[in-house]
Structure formats: structure tokens, C-alpha cells
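Q: A small favour: would you put together sequence and C-alpha cells for a protein?
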Amino acid sequence: MIMVASSSDTGAAGRPHDEDDLLLARVAAGDAAAFGRLVDRHGERALAVATRMLGSRADAEDAVQDVFTRLWAGAAARWRPGGARFGTWLWRAVANRCLDQLRRPRMGELTDAIDPPDPSPGALERLERDRVLRQVTDAIQTLPERQRMAIALVYDAGLNGAEAAEAMGVSAGAMEQLLVRARRSLRTGLRPLMDEEDKGGA
């Protein structure tokens, strides 16, 4: 069966925030298809933000699932069109959920299984790429929580400075300072890696 968009959906095609409002109204009425559409529109970026903050995709999936479950369970019913944008609520909800998880006492972590060596061509290049990615991820994990949140919102969610500031509830100037400090710390923490790459390219 071919689905034909309603006039309201068609009119909102060029205005993503308006489309979010329409979808939220339908979610509040129990429309599972509209909920799925919201997840499709925002789920991947929300997962990227949570993964950056938590350093674990499995933990990030749990966090994002909790946020969307809360949306389905009742948050959408309290939504008021024309108020805060859905994206602002979502990034703040994801970030706060991640912060809550980071502040919980951590149980002993399972040791990752050791995979056998991969003899295929390009395996060494993939291992090197994974090593570099892990070092960058580890460096980001050492940042203070709010700096890590700022990095995740700007670089993983793709928000501009003003949008990230709104999501975090801070001024644009405060957001810029968070990013400046985070970048400075990352440059310092990743200096050995950058020196290593400079030597390798010499």
C-alpha cells in the first residue's frame, strides 16, 4: 500500500522542528509509527552522543533506550508546541542520563575476550586505526563531565555552539570556554600520539 503524506506532514518537510512537533503530538496520542519516526530521525545522533560520553556503546544503547522509553511513557504527552525544541530536550535528556550513569558506582567490568590474530590483508592497518581511535576515546573520557558533554554535542550531535549551549542550559560564552578547555586538554593528552605520527611521516 502506498502511503500518501498528509498536507500537514508535507508542509513541515522543510521545517524539521515543526515536523518534530507534529510527530510528538501523534506520539502523545499513542501513535507507534510516529514514535518510530522520531527514533529514526534522532536515534543515531543520540547514540553517538551517549557513546562519546560513556565510552561504551552498550552503556550508550541502554541510556538512549531509557530516554526514548520515557518519551513514549509520558513525556510526549506533556509537550507543548511552540516551547523548547524537541532536539534541545533530547540532547539535555541524553546528557543528563549519561551523567547519572557516570556518577553511579561501577561494578567490576568483564575483561574483553582476546581475539585471535587476523591474517587478512589490511589487518595491521585496521589494528593501528583502532589503536588511535581508542587513544582518542580514552583522552576524551578523562575530560571533566561538562567538557565531555560539550564535545559530544558539538562533534557527535553536530550542534552549533548556540544549540549546544541551549541544550546544556549555559550561555554561548560559557559553551565556548568549555570547548576551549576541552580542546586544550585533548591536545596535551594526545601530544605523544601526535608526536608519534609526526615521526612516522618524517
